[in-house]
Amino acid sequence: MTIGIVIFPGSNCDRDVRWATEGCLDMSTEFLWHESTDLSHFEAIVLPGGFSYGDYLRCGAIARFAPVLSSLVDFVSKGGKVLGICNGFQILTELGLLPGALIRNKDLNFICKDVDLIIESKRTSWLVNYKQDKQITLPIAHGEGCFYCNEDSLKKLQDEDSIALRYSLNPNGSTYDIAGITNKKGNVLGMMPHPERACDSKIGLTHGQEILKSLISN
What we know:
Radius of gyration: 16 Å
Order of helices and strands: EHEEHEHEEEEHEEEH
Number of domains: 1
Number of helices: 5
Distance between the termini: 12 Å
Structural class: alpha/beta
CATH architecture: 3-Layer(aba) Sandwich
CATH superfamily: Class I glutamine amidotransferase (GATase) domain
CATH topology: Rossmann fold
Helix content: 10-25%
Shape: globular
Low-confidence stretches: none
């Protein structure tokens, strides 16, 4: 079971994800260049954080046209698991695999700190190893991490139990304190916090391990 980690020009968390999955969790990974199209031998795909194509137009707006993402849509439709972290979350919304948009933080500042999160969803397999309402701590690092959606989209997310994570204290102005969401089927998770930066017991923060383990679990 191999996890594909997509690399775009401007990605900067691809090696972090590989270090966490292979070094801490002993999972098999392979880097995927953004021009790759064959995803047939992967169990799951990770879209890592960073600044794809320099974020020159809008976060994720250029990356969503990369050849690998055309194959990703088909991969998702067949039940493949996809995790989008930070810029990866932005790309998933631009691609239309997740609703809403990620816009500038409310104070227009880049935020880099650990935040407390509440496990919201009762159904998603990504969080099966956490109890609902459990509080975990993960790092964030973003300038455009404010999740926005209209009232109809928010109600749909709530009705489908697709809100995966919420901020305990909202750092960026996100609608309904949302930090991460899934698609209706549950095989796609987009989140602004970085689970790959919370996997090393040596630094005393390991709450990201269970999310990454879920890449290859049902």
